[in-house]
Amino acid sequence: MNDLVIMKSNQALTTSLKVADTFNKKHQHVMESIRNLTVENSTVKKMFVLSTYVNSRGQEQPMYYMNRDGFTLLAMGFTGKDAMKFKLEYIAAFNKMDDLIRGKLPKTPEEQLALTMVVTNRLVKRMDTVEARVDHVENTSELNEVQRYKLLQARKKRVIEAVGGVDSNYYKSTKARKVFNAFGRDFKKEFTIPRYDSLQKQYFKQAMEFTKNWYPDYVLKREIQNSNAQTSLKI
């Protein structure tokens, strides 16, 4: 998160995506808050610029760039102890970036280098602290929509494989639901969760690996084998 505050068009800016990530909010909710702010006052519109980004699915989605005033105004609506700490970190980062942009540094190259190193070191340490806090929040939060989709697709693929494919007798007999239920019980028992979507992000890779290597128990496996071994009488 050393690029927490970025320089674009000779300005210190951040984006709605970074705000959403840092405050552990859904991006659509941050976008909605920004739109509400710009509707209420035309002056506020100058603090935000609508742009786009490409998501993990390769789709172009809207986002906002904002300057320090825009961020400060937006963040005022966020509450809580952690939110206050994040606000202060962002404001400090903006101030440091603005100082560098506006040339508020000693004139000699040696003085500039020395102060730049001090500012950089302090900013890196501050950002590392915030990054660790955000990583903790990120890892302990629930799966996002993309991860849920990938996990559900992996589960579907594994269950179909376990019953012998979509052309198998077992799958065609509509008993596959029994295997889906068995997988669900084993999955929730493995990760000690009440439902799929309560899985934490930090366990996503483990969940995908578990799904890939899952097999039904002996009794269910024999039932699948017996069903698939049966042949239809053709007249």
TrEMBL record:
Residues 112-224 form the ORF6C domain. InterPro entries: ORF6C_dom (IPR018878), Phage_regulatory_Rha (IPR014054). Signal peptide: none annotated. This is Phage regulatory protein.
